[in-house]
Amino acid sequence: MALIVQKYGGTSVGSVERIQAVAERVQRAVNNGDSVVVVVSAMSGETNRLIGMAKEIQAEPTPRELDTLVATGEQVTIALLSMALQARGQDARSYTGAQVRILTDSTHTKARIQSIDTDTIRGDLDAGRVVVVAGFQGVDEHGQITTLGRGGSDTSAVALAAALKADECQIYTDVDGVYTTDPRVVPKARRLDRITFEEMLEMASLGSKVLQIRSVEFAGKYNVPLRVLSSFQDGPGTLITLEEDGVEEPVISGIAFHKDEAQLTIKGVPDSPGIAYKILGPIGEANIEVDMILQNIGADDTTDFTFTVHRNDFDKALDLMRKTADELGAREVSGNHNIVKISLVGVGMRSHAGIASKMFRVLAEEKINIRMIATSEIKISVVIDDKYLELAVRALHDAFELDTPEVSLS
Amino acid sequence: MALIVQKYGGTSVGSVERIQAVAERVQRAVNNGDSVVVVVSAMSGETNRLIGMAKEIQAEPTPRELDTLVATGEQVTIALLSMALQARGQDARSYTGAQVRILTDSTHTKARIQSIDTDTIRGDLDAGRVVVVAGFQGVDEHGQITTLGRGGSDTSAVALAAALKADECQIYTDVDGVYTTDPRVVPKARRLDRITFEEMLEMASLGSKVLQIRSVEFAGKYNVPLRVLSSFQDGPGTLITLEEDGVEEPVISGIAFHKDEAQLTIKGVPDSPGIAYKILGPIGEANIEVDMILQNIGADDTTDFTFTVHRNDFDKALDLMRKTADELGAREVSGNHNIVKISLVGVGMRSHAGIASKMFRVLAEEKINIRMIATSEIKISVVIDDKYLELAVRALHDAFELDTPEVSLS
């Protein structure tokens, strides 16, 4: 008899038929003896339809009104899912974010949750009802409707699970769990039974877009066991938990990669204090996000500076760099937008040496040139030419034996 | 500098273009120096789309969830209209029924308004904002979303006007006012500059479906001046007010008619106390609404009883009447579903004799047989064969000179 929060995204509730399939799945959990709170997104396509109308009216829609508008998407889904449950004889009640007082700050379109009033929900659960809550939305202290931004329904689910001290927060998606790497690149990629929050954060930020980073952070902070499952097929999914003592962690959990990177290098910059700020300041002001940053000693008291940005921002960043290079008297600016970043991720890395050198050896054996390297406690990332992406990921997946649960270090 | 409540129905806000036209009209009122509160319905078609999805899921959708579902319709409109006003540089704020605490009872799908909190609205108006409120919806004391039933947006507008003590409540529709009769039947039909609440109630209940009866009753009760205007063309519309002393009321304001009537007659019923109840009891229990009721003395201590119902209920009512006739030992049951009801309406009727006889004379001259007659203080209704509808209405419109503002009694 567990308390479960289940979250279904837009694709999972994208039609009347799918909503009925979700109702069936929810009822199965209730029949297993669990108390269930369901968090749902808007039906797929609905949010874009609403935003489309808004933009026809106002090029940059007033954020307060945009929130009021798009919040209707989830409100439709909660009502329909509650009806689907009632139609199956399962008592259920729907609640908007405002109705269960998912209190947020007033930052419209990307509000942050501050608290949730769980009294009403607990009352319904005690009465044997399924509680269906609108994800993605909340209300500020003035009663204004707010939304949490893209992927906010995951955050709503985790926040509800934390507030209710739920036994598990299940995120239903169109994939059946977290994989060692993208199965489209490596057919032998294996679904992980469990992964730590830290690993999941690295995997998510590196392009394994199963969950929103914010919801994983949130789950980690409040120690909410998070499970990723498929809403279209049965299976245990992947459990995301705190690192547990006593459990032998695999050295490498997975290989993430990010295709949309571009690299910029400015060479022969006079090496003086504040040089990094002078180079990256204009990039930040232009709202361009910087991913990796490397600085090397160059020739003659100068320094070489390299960083990566999203490929879409490459041209803009290159223009800015040329201006900066003129101002600083740098020798040369170069760039490359045909690169990818590949990362090995694993908490076990902390206690094992030799991972990096093994990675570099595998790539060398495949004659793949490494352009940049960056490391963190549980991650090693390399930047290589994008034409080698598949080759590199497959070679690493094989070398680290990720297709089998046991990992060797030979 | 007046305080105006404007209400726009689903057709008036049925597309992005129409919402922009409404914004233009609202802004014109603001530019005239008026403070404006706008009440809107869901975009036309939206409520039916939502109900369609609900019925796919649940044959009889749970009322609580149905209200949560359809309330999204107006929420979309308030947000889009507020954006359209903002886009024109006019500050505006949207509010759902819950946000301005349009407090109702808990009778989902046909809730009744109990109170409205006007503090927020007044604050916005004082700050120079247009306030856009979702019609049709409210919230009960437990925070559950309720709706007021069909045409409820008119009621919302009138209730807001009453609560705010507005100078006028303007109902924008697809007609430019209240006419002496249906212009499709009588091309010479004339728009009335003003009409009393009582006349309007009789006109509305008799098939001139310009306004919901409830909103007219409400406006009359709270003495809210109500004006019906077109949202597609400019014009003064029709003002609906209390009868004013000193103003010479026209004898007849208009001619209403009702096409979907059917008549049932049970003859030779033993005349005993409670006979009307014995006849109409089963009709009421079957949820059939009865309109006109007539009882005549028949032959030999028996009585003849005639009543009208909606044409859709005719077969069911006839079956019930045959059973009743058997039980009561009545002589004969007959019915006719090819009839119409035509009514002359006018508060001036009270102080003028001869209206009825003039009406009967006009119909006789056209050789139209009258099957039933009923009268009230400000109305005379006759039931005739439906084939004579157009002929009768035109003859009466001419005879009472409704195409000219002055009415003669000659």
Describe the structure.
The structure is a homodimer of 410-residue chains. With 410 residues, chain A is of the alpha/beta class. Chain A has two domains: 3-173, Carbamate kinase; 254-399, VC0802-like. Helices cover 34% and strands 27% of the residues of chain A. Chain A is built from eleven helices and 18 strands. Chain A has helices spanning 16-31, 46-57, 63-87, 119-126, 152-164, 197-205, 213-221, 275-285, 314-328, 355-365, 389-399; strands at residues 3-8, 35-40, 92-95, 102-104, 113-116, 130-134, 137-139, 145-147, 168-173, 194-196, 226-230, 238-241, 254-270, 290-297, 302-310, 332-345, 372-376, 379-385. The first copy, chain A, has an eight-stranded mixed beta sheet with strand order 3-6-2-1-9-11-12-10, sandwiched between helices. A six-stranded antiparallel beta sheet of chain A has the order 14-15-13-16-18-17. In chain A, helix 6 (197-205) runs antiparallel to helix 7 (213-221). The longest helix of chain A is centred in the N-terminal third of the chain and has 25 residues, at 63-87. The first copy, chain A, starts with a strand and ends in an 11-residue tail after the last helix. The mean pLDDT of chain A is 89. Chain A binds chain B through residues 16, 19-20, 50, 53-54, 56-59, 61-62, 64-66, 68-69, 71-72, 75-76, 78-80, 82-84, 86-87, 93-94, 96, 98-99, 143-145, and chain B through 16, 19-20, 50, 53-54, 56-59, 61-62, 64-66, 68-69, 71-72, 75-76, 78-80, 82-84, 86-87, 93-94, 96, 98-99, 143-145.
